[in-house]
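Archive transcription. Copying these from loose printouts into the bound notebook so they stop getting lost. Printout 1 of 2:
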Amino acid sequence: MIKLGEVQTLEVTKTTDFGVYLCEAGQGDASKILLPKSQVPSTLKLGDEIEVFVYKDSEDRIIATAIIPVLTLGKIALLSVKEVTTIGAFLDWGLAKDLLLPFKEQTARVHTGEEVLVALYIDKSERLCATMKVYNYLESSSPYHNEDRVIGLVYEIIDSFGAFVAVDNRYCALISPKELYRPLNVGDSVEARVIQVKEDGKLDLSVREKAYVQMDSDAELIFKKLQDASGFLPYHDKTDSEIIKAQFNLSKNAFKRAIGRLFKEGRIVISEAGITEVK
């Protein structure tokens, strides 16, 4: 059976002036498709086999090409946005006919020149399309373990769940809201730390270091803000956690650890009014 969106080896069953017709070996003309003349190697003859990709041309006819695109059915790839139109974005996947990324399959609006991580699927009209909703296409059997450093691409953000990340553009991972201490957007590349490998193999990530390592950078961040504010900030260990998050992008515990470090080093004084730099 000839499969749309896949690479297959097919047999030449008929030659014409405008190309050759291909079908599965031994199937005769039961389900033949055209390989246009411009794609036919000069040495190809009747009965030979050739590896092709099967897709639909601009007139929606199933056709073969000897050019293998970057993306095939059910797979994931990073593709460049060539154009944005009223029906969606068109992506460069290596074929003359660009690949449509419909608006409804975008997890964030894309722009010409950007690169987006997408999977290839067949829509209800039997056309090949791209989707940025790649969660179900990612693998969960990664080679990573707790405390490993990984690099991934943010492909979707849902406030109640966090930032969904494709590690190595291949493996399923999540940065939960409590680990999101800086703004992230769809399309961002992030370096993160594995904090848990779940039973199903999916990864939980953090963009922060371990507490004892992170404390140093948090303390320096707060101290710089303190200096920029002429040596006084109206925040202390009793300040509401939401205010701390809004002002420093830190959790309440991280803030308390950091100002505790600064206090022990003799760099600040903590009072009911806030924190003051020691001159």
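Printout 2 of 2:
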Amino acid sequence: MFSLVRENIRIAIDSIKSQLLRTILTVLIIAIGITALVGILSAISALENTISSDFSSMGANTFNIQRNEFEVQRRGGERQKQNPVITYADAKEFTEKYQFPLSTISLVFTGTNAAEIKYENKKTDPDVPVLGVNENYIQNSGLKVELGRGINFFDVENNNNVCIIGKDLQKKLFGELYPINKTISVRGVKFKVIGVLESKKTGLGSNEDYRVMIPIQKARSIFTNANINYGLSVKIEKKELLENAQEEAIITFRKIRKLNPIEENNFAIENSTDLINRVGSITQYLYMAAWIISIITIFGSSIALMNIMLVSVTERTREIGVRKALGAKRATIAVQFFVETIIVGQLGGVLGIILGLLIGLGVSSAAGFTFTTPWLAMFSAFAITFLVAILSGLLPAMKASKLDPVESLRYE
């Protein structure tokens, strides 16, 4: 039994070698479909991992109070009505009235996204975000200070001219110089650098390493734009208290907004878990689209493989006749073509997986995503190529096994 299987495998390999160009083309046809599957799924997986990682950095026991929800839905083709901005008065009143145990509140607003930062004779393009923050912002946002220290309570209360800068901004302005206690200029105001943040690449088109943070009161004296929107973040020391803390925050902020019991919230509360779940629901549709595109491509590959194997059966009619004349059974002939189809299919699958991983890795590197090995896509690719090989080889194998040996020997 095993010797017969080995013999069929040897014959199949010899046949593949004898038609090398055809085999290469067939393998490439299958590889294209598998490459589409693995490449698209790995890129989507990298995107999902990056977004989830960024949101998780908020901390599992942190939630934000913000103007609108993360995803602004469309109703009837029109954009959903925007909520009122969270004013400084709203934010300040919340920090005073919210008394939930073991909670820490951070406050932030974006003064500008287009500041020019100067240090001696060096300056940046006017594209640096400047944030006004309180002493709790860095901790609540999952950021870490690499050099120096963070902004503290006294910096905020005394309107100290101090700042923290991102890693990329440090490299841009100071190069190899030690940045702590150096003085930079923001809109003509001098600030002493007291800290540099650890690198935090988001991979989502924004660079959080290229920004400046200054005490919120000092920021309010510099940036006096109308309708400035403030962000609040609440960190709870014990994760099991998070739900109760959010409910208390909603009640407190509704009172600040003077909403009656039947009115809906005109603000949003988000935590990292909510955001990750929303990202998961969005990427589900991307996965579905990827599977549909890949299956259509693989379906075309299976038809091509079946057609090539049918041509191979026709060309090898005389060979089949000789084998049958020498005593080969129908099952033996069928297995021979099955083995040949499976080998070609798996070669295409392996090549497709390698190319798909390279494409996924390339897209992830170019976009700054966090690439992880897509094991599910790889196992699916192996299973699909095996199934495609069986389905594509079924008809040619049956056709070969049913050939009449006498007629086959007469075939020219």
